[in-house]
Design a protein that fits this description.
By secondary structure, this protein is mainly beta. The chain contains four helices and 21 strands. About 10% of the residues lie in helices and about 35% in strands. Strands 4-5-6-7 form a four-stranded antiparallel beta sheet, with no helix packed on it. The protein starts with a strand and ends with a strand.
Length: about 230
């Protein structure tokens, strides 16, 4: 997710119908520049070289989100007879419409990863490993991070430092997480402490992208991977 203000001007975006490295390309209606949806960078047109500001977002189930934010409003999106036109693509082994330009055998091409960029240093976390662990504590470029399973097949990413103290988290019963240092209980969707010494404290969310492995490493070759292959 990105903020759509660039150089003081609010842009409106549409789908161009083009692909770059099998990744969707957006265009803005104001200048007709083309933008990569994965990097948020303008790749062609008057705004080439411009960069959209990444915003944090949470991927989770509707049930978990509604429990955390009961007053949420939802745009109508369903209609009778609606089908997923990408269902066959998700189920097969094809790595993109255009085929792969790079290969990285550390994971299957369509393994899902949660990608982060810390100080322009990319790292990918295999989603299945995060789901199995419930919580992953890590440090990237001296930035302490925590990944929380948020129900279903999704994860959230937060900084795990609070008031200068780095916390270490573990998965707890009921889909919550607990920090070892204060034994406070945290909501993995909101990153907010719901009980304990740190109740009411919120972790700082970190922008992250859920992607197929082949899509992530095509843009970020040499990316670090959790857990390390082998």
């Amino acid at each position: 997710m990105y903020a759509r203000t660039v150089e003081g001007k609010v842009l409106t975006f549409g789908v161009s119908g083009k692909l770059v490295r099998n990744s969707l390309v957006m265009y803005d209606r104001e200048t007709h520049s083309l933008w990569s949806h994965l990097t948020g960078g303008a790749i062609k047109g008057p705004l080439k070289g411009g960069q959209l500001e990444v915003q944090t977002a949470t991927e989770t189930t509707w049930l978990s989100w509604r429990q955390a934010y009961p007053s949420t409003k939802v745009l109508p999106h369903d209609f009778p007879g609606q089908t997923d036109v990408y269902r066959r693509y998700f189920a097969n082994g094809d790595a993109g419409i255009l085929g792969r330009k790079r290969d990285d055998p550390r994971l299957p091409a369509k393994a899902l990863v949660v990608g982060v960029r810390i100080m322009d240093r990319p790292k990918a976390y295999r989603l299945a490993a995060v789901m199995q662990a419930g919580v992953v504590n890590d440090t990237v470029d001296d930035v302490p991070l925590a990944l929380f399973r948020t129900d279903g097949e999704a994860a959230s990413v937060f900084r795990r430092d609070v008031a200068g103290q780095s916390l270490t988290f573990k998965a707890s019963a009921g889909g919550t997480v607990t920090d070892i240092q204060t034994n406070s209980t945290w909501d993995p969707v909101t990153g907010r402490a719901t009980a304990g010494a740190l109740q009411g404290t919120s972790l700082t969310p970190v922008p992250a992208t859920t992607s197929f492995w082949f899509g992530w490493f095509d843009f970020f070759p040499g990316t670090e991977l959790y857990p390390p292959a082998g």
